[in-house]
From TrEMBL:
UniProt keyword annotations, A-Z: Repeat, TPR repeat
Domain of life assignment: Bacteria
InterPro entries the UniProt entry points to: TPR-like_helical_dom_sf, TPR_rpt
Name by which UniProt lists this protein: Tetratricopeptide repeat-containing protein
Keyword Repeat appears in the UniProt entry: yes
Record keyword Transit peptide present: no
Pfam families in the record: TPR_10 (PF13374)
Length: 651
């Protein structure tokens, strides 16, 4: 029976596709007396096919479709003939037939209307309508992918990246798809991809979309900063500021334009501070604050403007801390906290305001730690952690709150380490690592979570090494390095990942040196220096890379001294001091650079004939003390330097 049904379907199709032969066959059947066959054969064939469950084989629809195929093929042939072009070959005809059939079978009414237009000879109108429908379908699909991206953004980096990439491929008209995709690339550690997507979006942007152009310059600046190209980042931020200045001048009453300008000043300050230009950074942050103060004064009830002012105070505090003005920094951080406390009190249920207050406590803790007030710092860090524990408990699925809590555990661990409580520090670091491990497992594509886990291994290694557990420390440092190597391999152009890998090599070198493996330590220190030499050569104006290189010289000098290579050690320490003196000369107000000078002098003063005396070391320390820049933990070094200088003078 099934075979008879298949024959009936085949016959039905044959009848529809061969109308002339059908007529001839039916006339023969009629002359032969098969009048019923003449009237009933198509219906009988189709009924038989449907009766055995082949309902999809609807002969009437199939016949109409084949008629449509034939009509459109005829119209295409007529068009080609009218234009004097060659007729379709077999492959071309088959392609047209397939397109018509598949479009018709889809059953979309608008597309069916378009095919009817083509069949009636209105080919261009039909194709335009099909294209219009296709674009509309793409837009609908893009919006679906965009919504997936929005949902996945906070929880699944890989899925969100895929979704925004699909949305951007389907509909490139919205630059914010590129902006969010770039941010996701950066989060995943692929800075090159983040930069590429932002640059492509900028190139495709219409001239009139000025604000979006400014935002894309800002995104490019962020990517360049992450890759270590601070000059390029500064240029991008300045392009952003030029647009923000123009928009703000055109509409002085537009608070959003004014805010964009303040953000641009802020970003320029970050780039200048990272490059060691302390004064330039401070000037940029103060320009930012001037706008923030004006906006907050114009609308005292606007919590967002108040928050921006709090951030400005905090940034100025960061710049002052970098310059060694701990009192000024503390005052700025407290001004930021006063605003954060007011906002949090006004809206106790606002998690963002609560988080801002926790950040202020952390900043104050940092300033107190630098001033030698460990108890005050620990109290501040614990106040921050109390807020973060509450936020994390309220929303256990919020990865950002969880990460903040891990940062608080690390800060408390640092303070406990500094005060000599190694067991307490180790417990805090392990609490931080437990969170980091969970976050990294939840979102394997998130490079920040991976990096946090590597930092936790690093800190645990420090605590174990300080406790005398060299093997445990070495295992922790190697776990740290495994992550750092993977991140650096994923994005070879990412300067931060490269620097992290150099730090891992250094820590392993420290552990090997402490265990007596001088050759292994020296090999690790040289691996770190190779990375740092490359970074410093790529960006000669980058003070951080230069300082890192100087520290590698110091480590190698110490390892060579252990091995009895006095001349090699002396050369390494001289190279260290040359960089330290150059940095200090470039920025005389920078406390860290000044400290590096006396530390270099200290090491060289131990060598007979090095050219550096203990009197010079003491003078450098006394100069720092005179300007209030000598940290309390460094006070004993001044006493020792004075004593050594006096001893040498008496000899």
């Amino acid at each position: 029976m099934h075979r008879i049904a298949e024959d009936a379907v085949a016959l039905c199709r044959w009848l529809a596709r061969h109308p002339l032969l059908t007529v001839l066959a039916l006339l023969i059947a009629f002359v032969g007396g098969s009048r019923a066959l003449f009237y009933d054969l198509p219906e009988m064939a189709c009924d038989m096919a449907q009766g055995v469950g082949l309902a999809g084989e609807t002969c009437g629809e199939d016949a109409e479709r084949e008629e449509l195929v034939a009509s459109i093929a005829a119209q295409v042939a007529a068009r080609l003939a009218a234009e004097g072009r060659a007729p379709l070959d077999a492959e071309g005809a088959a392609s047209v037939e397939t397109a018509v059939r598949e479009t018709a079978e889809a059953g979309d009414p608008a597309e069916a209307e378009a095919l009817a237009l083509i069949a009636d000879g209105e080919i261009d109108a039909g194709l335009d309508k099909l294209a219009q429908e296709a674009r509309a379908a793409e837009a609908r699909a893009a919006e679906r992918w965009r919504n997936i991206g929005r949902l996945a953004f906070p929880i699944d980096t890989g899925r969100a990246r895929e979704a925004y990439a699909k949305a951007l491929a389907l509909d490139g008209s919205d630059p914010w798809d590129a902006i969010y995709l770039g941010r996701l690339h950066a989060r995943a550690g692929d800075i090159a991809a983040a930069l590429a997507v932002a640059e492509a979006a900028l190139a495709a942007l219409p001239a009139e979309a000025e604000r979006d152009r400014g935002v894309l310059h800002n995104e490019i600046g962020d990517a360049l900063m992450a890759s270590g190209d601070r000059d390029g980042a500064l240029a991008a931020y300045r392009a952003y500021m030029a647009i923000a200045e123009r928009l703000a001048a055109q509409d002085p009453g537009n608070a959003e334009w004014a805010r964009d300008l303040s953000v641009a000043h802020n970003k320029i300050g970050d780039a200048l501070r990272a490059s060691g230009d302390r004064d330039g950074a401070l000037a940029a942050y103060r320009a930012d604050m001037a706008i923030a103060e004006r906006l907050a004064a114009q609308d005292p009830g606007n919590a967002e403007w108040a928050r921006d002012l709090s951030v400005s105070h905090s940034k100025i505090g960061d710049a002052l801390m970098a310059s060694g003005d701990r009192e000024g920094a503390l005052a700025s951080y407290r001004a930021a906290m006063a605003i954060a406390e007011r906002l949090a009190a006004q809206d106790p249920g606002n998690a963002e305001w609560a988080r801002d207050l926790s950040v202020s406590h952390n900043k104050i803790g940092d300033a107190l730690m630098a001033s030698g007030d460990r108890d005050g710092a620990l109290a501040a860090y614990r106040a921050s952690m109390a807020i973060r524990e509450r936020l994390a408990a309220q929303d256990p699925g919020n990865a950002e709150w969880a990460r903040d809590l891990s940062v608080s555990h690390n800060r408390i661990g640092d303070a406990l380490m500094d005060s000599g409580d190694r067991e307490g520090a180790l417990a805090s670091y392990r609490a931080a690592m437990a969170i980091a491990e969970r976050l990294a497992a939840q979102d394997p594509g998130n490079a920040q979570w991976a990096r946090d886990l590597s930092v936790s291994h690093n800190r645990i290694g420090d605590a174990l090494r300080a406790s005398g557990d060299r093997d445990g420390a070495l295992a922790a440092y190697r776990a740290d390095m495994a992550i750092a190597e993977r991140l650096a391999a994923q994005d070879p152009g990412n300067a931060q990942w490269a620097r992290d890998l150099s730090v891992s090599h250094n820590k392993i070198g420290d552990a090997l040196r402490a265990s007596g493996d001088r050759d292994g330590a020296l090999a690790s220190y040289r691996a770190a220096m190779a990375i740092r030499e490359r970074l410093a050569a790529q960006d000669p104006g980058n003070a951080q890379w230069a300082r890192d290189l100087s520290l590698s010289h110091e480590n190698i000098g110490d390892a060579l001294m252990d091995s009895g290579d006095r001349d090699g050690a002396l050369a390494a320490h001289r190279a260290r001091m040359a960089i330290a003196e150059r940095l200090a000369a470039q920025d005389p107000g920078n406390v860290q650079w000044a400290r590096d000078v006396w530390v270099s002098q200290w090491r060289l003063a131990r060598f007979e004939g090095s050219g550096v005396t203990w009197a010079e070391v003491a003078a450098s320390l006394e100069a720092m003390k005179a300007r209030g820049a000598l940290a309390p933990p460094d006070e004993p070094f001044l006493a020792t330097a004075r004593a050594n200088a006096a001893t040498r003078a008496a000899e």
